[in-house]
Design a protein that fits this description.
By secondary structure, the protein is mainly alpha-helical. It is 61% helix and 0% strand.
């Protein structure tokens, strides 16, 4: 028997990643500008990712997780 995930019942992966990135940033007391400077990712893109308006690429996740001194797998596991 197969099951179908209902997107309306639970947040999507982009929303979970968005929330995790925001929490990691806020836990460090960083502004979006500070995370942008540490990661080399534009403030606009970080803002879009945190609002789940853009899906982060693997490369972008690599840059953000590096700024947090985390591996991508750790960042995703925490999401």
């Amino acid at each position: 028997m197969s099951t179908i995930l209902d997107d309306s019942a639970s947040p999507g992966l982009d929303a979970l990643i968005a929330a995790r990135i925001r929490r990691e940033r806020e836990a460090r007391g960083w502004s979006i500008a500070e995370l942008a400077a540490a990661s080399g990712v534009s403030r606009a893109m970080i803002s879009k990712v945190e609002r789940a308006e853009a899906s982060p690429t693997a490369a972008l996740l690599g840059r953000l997780s590096g700024a947090f001194h985390l591996t991508v797998s750790t960042l995703l596991a925490r999401a």
